[in-house]
Amino acid sequence: MQFLPKTIPEIQPEIISVKESPPELVTFDVGGMKCAGCAKAVERQLMQYSGVISACVNLAVEVATVECQPGTVDAEALAKKLTDNGFPSQSRLGENQREAEAATIERRQQEIRQQINQLTIALILIILSGLGHVLGTKAPLLSNIWFHWGLATLALLLPGRPIIVDGCRSLWRNAPNMNTLVALGAVTAYTASNAALLFPRMGWECFFDEPVMLLGFILLGKTLEQQARRRAASALQALIALQPAKARLVDFKLSSLDLRSEELPLNSTSEVYDPQYIEIPADRVRVGEWLQVLPGEKIPVDGEICEGKTTIDESMLTGESMPVLKQPGDTVAAGTINKSGAVVMRATRTGKETTVAQMVALVQAAQTRKAPIQNLADTVAGYFVYGVMGISVLTFLFWYFAGTHIWPSVLLGHGAMNMGHGAMNMGSELPIIHYQSPLLLSLKLAIAVLVIACPCALGLATPTAILVGSGIGAERGLLIRGGDVLERVHQLDTVVFDKTGTLTTGNLTLTDYLPIFQNSEWDLNSDINVGNKQDVCSTIDGVSGNRQDACSTIDGFSGNRQDACSTIDGASGNRQDACSTIDSKLLQIAAAVERGACHPIAAAILQEAQQQGLPLLAAEDFCTEPGFGVSALVEGRRVFAGNAEWMKEQGVAVATELSGSCKGKTAVYVASGGVLLGVIGLKDTLRQDAKATVERLRGMGLRVMMLTGDTASAATATAQQLGLAAADVLAEVRPEGKARAIAALQAQGCKVAVVGDGINDAPALAQADVGIGLHCGTDVAVETAQIVLMRNALMDVVESIELGRATFNKIRQNLFWAFGYNTLGIPVAAGILLPATGILLSPAAAGAFMAFSSVSVVTNSLFLRRGFRA
């Protein structure tokens, strides 16, 4: 089957406005948030500050990210404002970031310890209260009403005190939260029971066990939830822990080292173990300084091995457990582990610029970016507590003034689902009351409404799923920048791959040279003595009878150059004189020009010149035209090296036969003074996992396309190996044209992901719905991408999309449960089933449901790991 790749017509580049000053991002650790209402309140307070553009608060990790105008926001003042309003905060600015992180972790551990202590007391009180109901008259003390009054009082004063205080303060600050609802329910139940105790003639029952049970269940749920949230955040904490704390700074000349052995034992006497060193914090290391790393230690910063030989465990970056051999000149990353030998390294990237620091920053940023699907939950959460209090009041009014009169039978006895614990009176026993007053029943239902509502489930639905998903990704080298990216991943239907360096290895090899030097004024005698241009051309003429025919029939570019050169051998007696020397001259000129480019093509040409031992010609005034080629002044002459389209722009004619001979290869034309000097053929090879990746993506229902600036013939050759149809190949596309090509697909209704690794891919990555960048690529491609693949494995594209889809499905499940729970639970607590079925939820039962609803959301998010086990 013949593939006919599409080509994108040349369009004048559009003028794109660039913001001179990008927004500044400030991150805060925020404490005191109890539910989604608190998170919304923090967002409102942040948005009220002058200069703040947007604010995003993550309840699960207790972090707020503020986007503000540069130089307009005082981070410390903003943190103080939040602290004064009841949310202790600290900015993550300054040199003490490590200390601040440690302080935050210590604060959270202290909160967990306090919760466990409070839960222990609450459980003891619940057990004592339950024994009074179980033993009855067998234990008069435990069933005495005053004993239960004491239990309820202790429950409010000890484990319940922080909840009640925080709930009242939040209500006073006009930012009610979950604790407000629990406090109102517990205090109301306690107050009503005291009224029944002090005024027995009212005929009310005492339910002192309700606040005890309610607070106990709430504390149990919060403790389980906190533990689950810690598990969800464990991946990020492990990533943060990878950042080394110390570095060993050495100051000696490399020539003084003697590290000839491949692996040095710990008791080695080599100078690499010279005790003359200074131990400093790793974040104080400067670029260019020399550091000593012993076996078993972590690499402190990103750098380059200067002396020594060792193996490095890079599993924290790549997920590969096999150590990698490192020698002088090889790069190493901070946080990786030196396994075998002692080395001296030179720091190249420090502090926030190291690979592991960037990974931490990306994961932290991902956990604070919300998915658009969360917007509805955030809107509801902002008014949720007010709504629940309103429903509670309406419930009380309805049942007291209407419900008990419409259905008087509801006052006779407890329903089958009444999960209360009996009633109490002034005696020593706990008799069952078969009649309830309308006021007490209405009050119980109103309290149940207060405590069954769960704003936490709404607030934790999205961030916990993102927390787990981003953690799994970080462990596997897949960095997803946020919940909004996850939602777009879920909507994808098209994946577009760049060719060179993405689908292919990017390690091009020279396959052919075709020197022409026709009508050129280039001095062929400079540096390399090729004799006389006329002699060489005459030799070729003598073989074919026509020099042009000979040049045209040299088929090495598309098939076998050896035949043509053999013919020349027969005529001249020396192929080296006639062909290789000119080849070397052409390669030498091309290498001099390509020295000013950073591209796989340039690297291949320079490598070939180096292997042949050719000295580089003097070159200056380099100019790179992305997507076309590079030019430079070589020995005073302007030389151009690039594709056929660029040659045409420079007024250089390229014969049709010559272009046709480039089939299946990348052609680099070399010209000077308007004359074509020759053409060089290069070929790339597919990545080992390229075809399997394409097949997996198709199996997921995605359309796979290839986008390249290479020639149509080279694109066709690659497409045939991958099994891509002609309609799925876009060839000869300039960098700015790549973005327009993606925009054209989006205009057709496609949701597009672009996978690339180079500077040329950055516009397309930015234009795409989801940009996927290979970390081994250029920094600009990584910065532009929404998903960064740390491992040099194309199959990670599949895994990142699968992870994105699975995480987003968990978000939808959590939100469905959170909304469904509150939608069904609140009416049941309000007594909607009471007239027909007799089902009545006691405040304690409602509190238990509320406590475990948020736990279920976090637990469901943790189940995400079951589908992505290593």
Q: Give the averaged pLDDT, no decimals.
A: 78
The main β sheet shows up as: 8 strands, mixed
Helical segment count: 30
Side by side, the strands of the main sheet go 1-24-23-16-25-26-27-15
The helix content is: 40-55%
| Tally of DSSP β-strands | 27
Radius of gyration: 37 Å
Low-pLDDT stretches are 10-19, 253-275, 414-434, 523-579
- Approximate strand percentage: 15-25%
Structural class based on helices, strands and sheet pairing: alpha+beta
Rough outline? elongated
Distance between the termini: 40 Å
Key terms for this structure?
870 residues; alpha+beta; 8-stranded mixed sheet
What does this structure look like?
- By secondary structure, the chain is α+β, with helices and mostly antiparallel strands.
- Helix content is 48%, strand content 15%.
- The protein has 30 helices and 27 strands.
- An 8-stranded mixed sheet has the order 1-24-23-16-25-26-27-15, with helices on both faces.
- Strand 23, helix 24 (712-722) and strand 24 form a beta-alpha-beta unit.
- Helix 6 packs antiparallel against helix 12 (438-452) and helix 16 (533-544) packs across helix 17 (547-553).
- The longest helix is centred in the first third of the chain and has 39 residues, at 97-135.
